[in-house]
Amino acid sequence: MDPLLQFSLLLAIVIVVAKAAGYLSVRLGQPAVLGELLAGLLLGPTLLDILHWPLFGGGHLAETIHQLAHLGVLLLMFVAGLEVDFEAMVRSGRPAVLSGVLGVVVPILLGMVVALPFGFDGQQGFILGLVLAATSVSISAQTLLELKVLRSRVGIALLGAAVVDDVLVILLLSLFVALAGGGGGGILAILWVVAKMGLFLALAAWLGARFIPRLAALVDRLPISEGVLALVIVVTLLFSWGAEFLGGIAAITGAFLAGLLFARTPLRLQIEGGVHTLAYSWLVPIFFVSIGLGANARALGAGGWPFALAIVGVALVTKVLGGGLGARLGGFSTQEALRLGIGMTSRGEVGLIVATIAQEAGLVDESVFASVVVMVLATTLLTPIMLRAAYPKTGGQARAVDEDYGLQAPLEE
Question: Does residue 278 form part of some domain?
């Protein structure tokens, strides 16, 4: 069969299965990403191993799917940056900042401690801790929205804490990847890596803040079909390239920064609609399915399940402990702190991105990657259940809205 026909058929199968699995997941009260991850496990080497069917030429299409998945990652991180509201984070105040910081520090430390008995070194333990530090607030936000408590103190602080969490994880990942690839050289090499990162971020932020709003407004006036969306894609790709090639940091940092900058333009809603359509119609589902395509649960074996169950346990405990402690120190009651900590428990996109980058860099093997996928699936499934248990059925006292916390409209999926 012609390679283009093979690719077309494979792409059609992947998208249909991803969307069908996402639909079933939503109908069962779970986020679509859970179904898409399970779809990847179904199609991947864990069960069907579709990429190695004779119909698709014995696996030569894997690299193409891999590249499309990377584009999906970049758009996903652009959307994450586009949706960040720093004003809301500032208004949520001290509990959000402390919960976000401790929600990163505690998982990293305990993740490193848990990794040691299983034979991992400090570098591998840190990257595992970084995977455990990432959170996926969209799942919790949707659950709180259904409970009609998203506008409560806990809901708004949770959104702010998630911003702090994601920014810290992305920056730590970028620094880690840059240092891991720096080849040593002592303190001067570290300072050079940090200087390159700082210079790139400062220059990109300055140029973007100065020229992107004007350029977007100019392109919007020109008779170019989908000109603004084309500009967004070009800038995102250039920022991603520049982040890794010039700044020595992860490409996703550049995409995230591009999203932050475009969020400050008057065309934000127009951009959001276009990018959401492009990303979530095919590229982002391909990314989530590709996680399953690249993860072989059989690689865990009998000896791998204890480690997988250990990191699931650490994932459940550390966010409740770290995020909850931060909220308590920020002035929340014990019950409010517990609810916020539970809300930060779910892992998702950023954690999978960290694990993917670590696997590509040779820092974790296939069995560890499979364990991470198990952890993401487990926390994604359990977080809505735990949140619902943490609130009375009526929502009660938590439904009060404090406009000073700054959410002007319900958050939508």
Answer: no
Radius of gyration of the chain (CA): 21
Cα–Cα distance list, 200 to 81, 136, 245, 315, 379 (Å): 17, 27, 10, 33, 35
Are 18 and 285 in contact by the 8 Å Cβ rule? The answer is yes
Within-domain flag for 5 = no
Q: For residue range 248-270, what is the model confidence (pLDDT) as tens digits?
A: 777 888 898 899 899 889 999 99
In a domain, 350, yes or no: yes
Count other C-beta atoms under 10 Å from residue 60's C-beta: 13
CA dist., res. 17 & res. 39, Å (int):
6
DSSP 71-94: HHHHHHHHHHHHT--HHHHHHH-H
CA atoms of 105 and 207, how far apart (whole Å) = 32
One-letter amino acid of 325: L
Residue 290 · residue 65 · CB < 8 Å:
yes
pTM of the model: 0.74
Q: For the chain, how many structural domains are there in total?
A: 1
DSSP 246-293: TS-S-HHHHHHHHHHHHTTSTTHHHHHHHHHHHIIIIIHHHHHHHHHH
Which residues form the domain of 231? 81-271+299-395
Whether 65 is covered by a domain: the verdict is: no
The phi-psi region of residue 400 (left if phi > 0; otherwise alpha if psi is between -120 and 50; otherwise beta) is beta
Q: Kindly report, residue by residue over 289-321, the tens digit of the pLDDT.
A: 888 787 777 777 777 888 889 999 999 999 999
Secondary structure element (H or E) that encloses residue 291, with its range: helix 284-294
Q: What pLDDT does residue 146 have?
A: 63
Residue type, 43: L
d(CA 265, CA 262): 5
Query: Highest mean pLDDT range out of 19-28, 72-81, 284-293?
Result: 19-28
Question: What angle do the packed helices 227-245 and 186-221 form, to 10 degrees?
Answer: 170
CATH number of the domain at 155, please: 1.20.1530.20
